[in-house]
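Worked problem 6 (solution included).
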Amino acid sequence: MPKTRKLALMAMLTAVSLIVFVIEAQIPPLVPIPGVKLGLANVVTLVAMLILGKKEAGAVLLVRIIMGSMFAGGVSGFLFSLAGGVLAYAVMCLTVKIFPEKLLWVVSILAAIGHNIGQLAVSVFVTGTPSILVYAPALIASGIVTGAFTGLGALYLVRALNKLDKKQV
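Solution. The predicted structure is:
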């Protein structure tokens, strides 16, 4: 892929990811458990990893975390997003080549659980209260559900993008 096309695609994916993140931040919590949300911006990170590569997906994620914190999070939001995002990204990098594309939802579930573990770690660090870990089972369960949902979304989006790309050739 030419460098200009790759850079333009990275910019577009970053913008989409940021828009999804900001919109999702406006949605009221679906359940009364702190930290539970859909994580729809992670669809973009997974798509970027599959169509552009790990390094490029990491750049898209990092820019989204920084800019998303400016628009909708603040300093504490930045810490939670960074910890969760970096851990989720690491899990994606380690597992995306292990599982075939049709099992992208498994990669997404593992990444969502990693994200929640990262956020729990920051919670314990910031508050100095290990009892916050009482939320771990609920966050892991939510990570399984939301991770499957976002993983399936990423899978269908990658397949659609691949079909479009083949039509252009």
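Discussion: The two ends are 13 Å apart (CA to CA).
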